Amino acid sequence: MPSRSLFRLAVAGSAATLAAAGAVSLAPSAQAVSSSVVISEVYGGGGNSGAVHNSDFVELYNLSGTPVDLNGWSVQYWSANGTTAQRTPLSGTVAPATSFLVKEASGANTSATPLPTPDVVGTIPMSASGGRVAIVDPSGKVVDLLGWGSASTAEGSPAAATSNPTSVARTSTCTDTDNNSVDFAVGSPSPRNSAAGQQDCSPTPPDDGTVATVAQIQGSSHTSPLAGTKVKDVEGVVTAVKSSGFWIQSLTPDGDDSTSEGIYVFTRTAPTVKAGDKVSVVGTVAEYRPGGSGGTTNLTTTEIDGPTVTVTGTAALPAPVVLGVDRVAPQQTIFAGDPGNIELPGVPFEPAQNAIDFNESMEGMRLALKDARAVGPTNTRYGETPVVPGQNVDAVNSPRGGVVYSSYAHPNAMRLILNDSLVKGQIGAANVGDVFSGTTTGVLDYSFANYTLLATDPGTLTDNGLQREVTASPRGNEMAVATFNVENLAPSDPAEKYSRLAGQIVTNLKSPDILALEEIQDNSGSRNDGTVDSTATSDTLIAAIKAAGGPAYEAKWVNPNNLTDGGQPGGNIRQVFLFRTDRGVWFVDKPGATANTSTDVVGTGRGTSLTQSPGRIDVGNAAWNNSRKPLVGQFSYNDRSVFVIANHFASKGGDDPLFGRFQQPVRGSEAQRHSQAQVVRGFVDKLLAADPDANVIVLGDINDFEFSRTTDILVGSGSSALTDLPRTLPAPERYTYVFQGNNQVLDHILLSRNLVRTMANKRYSYDIVHTNAEFHDQDSDHDPQIVRLPVQVTR
């Protein structure tokens, strides 16, 4: 089915000729009044979010007193301004005064009601808001035509626009005046098939709606108990306005905290009301799902569609609910239990226990935050900043002002996304720890897996003075090893990005001896032209490092096959080693590796070595399908071999969001990372079997948390266990990445036993260097990290 989001755009009407099969042409007044078969109802919202039925349909009706043989006839459909028809051939006979049901395409909303058994089945996906449908007989004659919504062609004028829960139907099945706007009205779908028998031709009285309050429409649930119902006399005051609708809030609340007093009124075009107007609204209750109905895990928001709005006066806006003061969100429980789809009937709705229900209970209402704290940097492209209230926040707070995602049971459920779309230019760009001093007021919305406070009156952004960290320089007897995801670095990136990254490497990381880089793109960047080599990318970065006062790094990597390692299409990202020989680090070069070859372990004891260096690990393993293969290199330092394995595991893309409709969220992507961790762990086991005292460093973007099963697999157990360095830090300091306001570990450095036990007196030092993830002007979305190891890596 068409995505609902497509119909949020205004469509400009234009005169168009409708071409049916063959040479049929339909002008604005296509035919005379029909005396046989007519279109009696059309529904295009089938299976969409908020749909009543799971399929589109066209219902026909026989006006005549004799049966009509439909063999050779067809139902034909055009979009509102389209010129190409889609056809459903008809067959069978429609009896006098009887309906005939043509089922068309189905949507993804399986909770919607199935149609009665159709008389004919087609596959046409029709618009939920407007289009054109014709009945065409075997000679090509258009017997009847319906245009509705923004249709450019109709009999007379088009009928009114529909929405996901509404259809357009004849007010009297026995009457055809050849004027669609007169003959048809919008209402709840009522499909009839031929088995329903003859029906009364008396006019259907118009549905003038059910009287309802905002709270009754919202109900104590994630979807409205009145979805698909026409409502009237819905009263409230306008609290905020945007280009396609406005929010109202009741001035006579019901006193029940579980039912929201606010709702969005979707006007499709710019509304004429303003904040402070008292209004009475007539319209149809609908559920809108951001991203469309097809397969998305987003929650819906309740709204009133197709409204008729009457301004009845003016009123002061209701006082906002102050989060953290008037009401406090459940701090660490998004949803208790494992019900699956929380929008289904029967799922408990408990705002006092579940943060997702708590937020739903205030959907569309005026809320406020006092001294809101930024717990993620502002995404300046979208004007979004993750925030928490300035009071009553129970979380693992980072020393720099963020909140730490310390386990699956600590999702920091009090977070909201502060959005500036209603007050463009009035909210500055924040770093983590900055405060919006005073009161920030707005309306609560939901967009793409997050509850969002659309600011109407923002507080004053106060800079908390967050500085980029600078790590310590290695001492003369230390080898410094670092990892850094440089976020799709390509030759086409501006020189400023290279210069700033080089500055981080030289100044903030103190020019480490070995640097494993992730997300180095090929020489043509994201252009999909078959290029796989990345010499230009690494050379440009090396030159920028030297220009910033750093050493003359050398680089090693293995080019992947084209379009096989995931990431940005055409970019062919890979891991690359940079190393400096001026401090005694040498690369043990064993050439011959290709994208299709796997390196292996040979020798024993101090003679343990790789067959290819640099090389890739088990490249044919299914664990690496559409994902980066690990890069392993053998280095020599102080006359000892050091084996470094640089990784970039599969992303978390496709996992259920924390604030999605499926609870508990399914982390489907982690199965591949578990397999990848097992492959890498197996290679480490080979090295340690050959030499139990081998110096092994596993590092890179693991795309999983320090408390995850993925990390457990990498660590292993017993005498061969690796030490995951993020786990050695105090909990508030464990983060390399900030996602939707949650500080979390995605990047790791793990050390083999020999590297750890020779440093039992804590002579090594490990540092996550916070230079990017907390800042709105970041050069990458990841923070680098570094470990400094003593020269004496002997037994």
Descriptive overview:
It is a single chain. With 795 residues, the chain is mostly beta strands. Strands 34, 37, 38, 39, 41, 42 and 45 form a seven-stranded mixed sheet that branches. The chain has a six-stranded mixed sheet with strand order 10-9-4-3-13-14. Helix 4 packs across helix 5 (535-547) and helix 6 (670-690) runs parallel beside helix 7 (709-715). It is elongated, with a radius of gyration of 32 Å. Residues 1-31 have low confidence and may be disordered. Residues 1-32 form the signal peptide. InterPro entries: Endo/exonu/phosph_ase_sf, Endo/exonuclease/phosphatase, Lamin_tail_dom, Lamin_tail_dom_sf, TAT_signal. It holds the Pfam family LTD.
Which tags fit this structure?
six-stranded mixed β-sheet, disordered N terminus, OB fold (Dihydrolipoamide Acetyltransferase, E2P), catalytic activity, 795 residues, mainly beta, 8 helices, LTD domain-containing protein, 47 strands, seven-stranded mixed β-sheet, single chain, elongated, Immunoglobulin-like, 4 domains
In short:
9% of the residues lie in helices and 31% in strands.
At the fourth level of CATH, the homologous superfamily of the largest domain is Endonuclease/exonuclease/phosphatase
- Largest sheet, strands/sense/barrel: 7 strands, mixed
pLDDT < 50 stretches? 1-31
Question: How much of the polypeptide forms β-strand, as a percent range?
Answer: 25-35%
CATH-derived topology of the largest domain: Deoxyribonuclease I, Chain A
Rg, alpha carbons:
32 Å
**What form results from the Cα inertia axes?**
elongated
Distance between the termini: 66 Å
CATH top level class name of the largest domain: Alpha Beta
Count up the domains: 4
* Structural class by SSE content: mainly beta
Number of helices: 8
Q: Round the mean pLDDT to the nearest integer and report it.
A: 92
CATH architecture term of the largest domain = 4-Layer Sandwich
Q: How many runs of DSSP E, i.e. beta strands?
A: 47
Helix content: under 10%
